[in-house]
Amino acid sequence: MKLRLRGRRDRAGTTDASSADLTDQLVKASGKGRPTPKRTEAQGRRTGPPPPPPTTRKEAYKRMRAQQATRRVESRQGAARGDDSYLPARDRGPVRKLVRDVVDTRRNVGSFFLVIAGVALIGTVVPNLAVRSYASFLLFAFFLLLIVDSVVLSRRINRAVTERFPDAPKRGLSWYGISRSTMIRRWRFPKPDVAPDAEV
Question: For labeling, which of 56, 116, 134, 184 is most exposed (least CB within 10 Å)?
């Protein structure tokens, strides 16, 4: 005849109940509140049923090329948006983003570099001596104005970075901003996401 130990059973029951309560609390605290789905179920919800495996080498190569093209398009679009995960190392980080914003809010002299250089280049090949002289003078004056504007832009970049990120290294930031300012606004990469004359 077995003897039932009430106290022992109660303690076991209390322990089991406490463990269950503790488990419920941990699940609720984790914010999940549901069992972990199986890998096949999660993949099915994300991407649908997996495609059948390729039957020939040519089909496998074609599928690989299509996947590579899709990844290239996604990378190009992400980089154009300024997503750090798609940008090259020279464009990543909040400091570089601030420099780009400073440049994109200004009306930079460097934005006219390609236009002025093209006009001056055409003028230098014209057989008329006066036209060639004017073209050379225009190019020289533009370069002087570009130097002055670049100095002003460099100071503005350093001031903005010092205010926002005082501990960030400033080496190369001025040249990064100046090189961006020499591009036409619509050709800049990553694309500008601030309006001209906006507050940064």
Answer: 56
**Residue 173: CB atoms within 10 Å:** 20
Whether the ω angle into residue 196 lies within 30 degrees of 0, i.e. cis, is no
DSSP assignment, residue 35? P
- Rounded to whole angstroms, how far apart are CA atoms 42 and 21? 28
Model's pTM, two decimal places? 0.63
All residues at 6 or more sequence positions from 191 whose CB lies less than 8 Å from its CB, including other chains: 80, 81, 82
Question: How far apart are alpha carbons 187 and 190 in whole angstroms?
Answer: 9
User: Helix or strand or coil: residue 164?
Assistant: helix
Q: Domain segments of the chain: what residues?
A: 56-87, 90-187
Question: Which of 22, 180, 198 is CA-nearest to residue 108?
Answer: 180
pLDDT digits (tens, 9 = 90+) for 82-100: 777 788 888 889 999 999 9
Q: What is the dihedral of CA 139, 142, 146, 152, to 10 degrees?
A: 160
If 0-12 CB within 10 Å is exposed, 13-18 middle and 19+ buried, where does residue 5 land?
Answer: exposed
In terms of Cβ atoms closer than 10 Å to its own Cβ (0-12, 13-18, 19+), residue 93 is middle
